[in-house]
Write a structure and sequence with these properties.
single chain, mainly alpha, Cytochrome Bc1 Complex, Chain D, domain 2, 2 domains, two-stranded antiparallel sheet, 13 helices, 4 strands, globular, binds heme C
């Protein structure tokens, strides 16, 4: 009996050791897998819609305006610019790897990508259209109806289908193949000593307690300002806006750190201009640690190894409007 248990335990540890040769099973971060495309025509349609500014009132703002896929899926400004040059209240998070988030938005108020995608179209401070008006535009364009036919089996256009297609496209926006993933998968030369030191510090100081999983974030909600309060002029409340609880004030979804080198400026208010700033603030507020320059630089060097292969596709060419398409109202 005792020997049997011993044997079983040692067999178990052998099999764990074997798996850790291919993928480091004990690491808090796992490699990103390439997207598997289930319905290629749906993804193509979603891509067109993502790039189509006619979903906005002005005919000028598309999802890609604020989630620019040439710039890490963000707009690289502190808070976004919406319809009629309105100043947005919050920083645009990246759409890259967003499919891995436990919920969408900084406060998690949308349960998934499909639910999220309906928001900006009708948000007066963003695309400022309505679901009805956006659908009317698409419906008026015969080529679009053909694409809906191919993706859904009938040419009906409605907001449910629009958001389903956009979400299907967004699910393909994953970024595998980063140097860090190569290292995780066994290429021990993929990282240099400074980057490895940074990763060790990232784990030993406690960053990975919150930023973990394949997306290095997106797996839980946490307070911003655990040891010291975060000073900001932003009026954003975090999870409190969703739950109504005072204890959820300044609680946010832990953001992904994948491609963080590309998605500056940082934090929900966009107040940290550099990655060095963001790392120092995190150390102080979340862990009560003052990193010196060498420590900060090594964590930053590690974080830059999380930049993966960016989405690579042909720019979609959108079918033109025609005489019956409702006109944009830019001014
Ligand atoms: C005017 C700029 C703007 C436009 C246009 C825009 N977004 Fe966003 N997006 C934002 C901002 C700002 C947030 C964060 C809002 C919040 O958390 O309260 C956001 C959040 C998101 C998120 C959540 C990501 C996460 O990590 O939580 C996704 C996904 C997303 N947008 C997709 C889209 C799609 C799809 C479209 C087009 C239908 C779109 N956005 C249009 C600015 C924009
Ligand atoms: C207790 C949980 C927690 C710990 C520990 C933590 N973070 Fe964070 N991190 C967060 C949250 C929550 C945010 C979002 C803050 C906000 O609202 O802007 C964040 C944001 C960030 C950002 C900015 C991301 C962006 O897209 O704007 C970076 C970079 C970052 N953390 C790095 C680190 C590093 C490096 C460490 C370790 C020194 C660390 N974090 C430790 C919870 C944590």
């Amino acid at each position: 009996m005792k020997i049997g248990t011993l044997l079983a335990t040692s067999l178990l540890s052998i099999s764990t050791a074997v798996t850790s040769i291919s993928v480091s099973a004990n690491e808090p971060i796992q490699p990103i897998k390439a997207a598997t495309i289930k319905n290629a025509e749906m993804v193509e349609l979603g891509k067109m819609l993502f790039f189509d500014p006619r979903l906005s009132k002005s005919g000028f703002i598309s999802c890609n305006s604020c989630h620019n896929l040439s710039m890490g899926g963000t707009d690289n400004i502190p808070t976004s610019i919406g319809h009629a040059w309105q100043q947005g209240p919050i920083n645009a998070p990246t759409v890259l790897n967003a499919s891995m988030n436990l919920a969408q938005f900084w406060d998690g108020r949308a349960k998934d990508l499909k639910e999220q995608a309906g928001g900006p179209i009708a948000n007066p401070g963003e695309m400022a259209s309505t679901h009805k008006a956006a659908v009317e535009v698409l419906q008026s364009i015969p080529q679009y109806r053909t694409y809906f036919q191919h993706a859904f089996g009938s040419d009906q256009v409605d907001i449910d289908r629009v958001t389903t297609a956009i979400a299907a496209f967004e699910e393909t926006l994953v970024t595998p193949g980063s140097r860090f993933d190569k290292w995780l998968e066994g290429d021990k030369k993929a990282l240099n000593q400074q980057e490895l030191d940074g990763y060790e510090l990232f784990k030993s100081s406690g960053c990975s307690g919150c930023h973990n999983g394949p997306a290095v974030g997106g797996t839980l909600y946490q307070k911003f300002g655990i040891y010291h309060p975060y000073q900001t002029t932003s009026k954003v409340e975090g999870r409190k806006a969703v739950t109504g609880k005072n204890t959820d004030l300044n609680v946010f979804k832990v953001p992904t750190l994948r491609n963080i080198e590309l998605t500056y400026p940082y934090f929900h208010d966009g107040a940290a201009a550099t990655l060095e700033d963001a790392v120092k603030t995190m150390g102080k507020l979340q862990l009560d640690r003052d990193f010196d320059k060498k420590e900060t630089d090594s964590i930053v060097a590690f974080l830059k190894t999380l930049t993966g292969e960016q989405p690579n596709f042909k720019l979609p060419i959108l079918p033109p409007s025609n005489n019956s398409t409702p006109k944009p109202a830019p001014f």
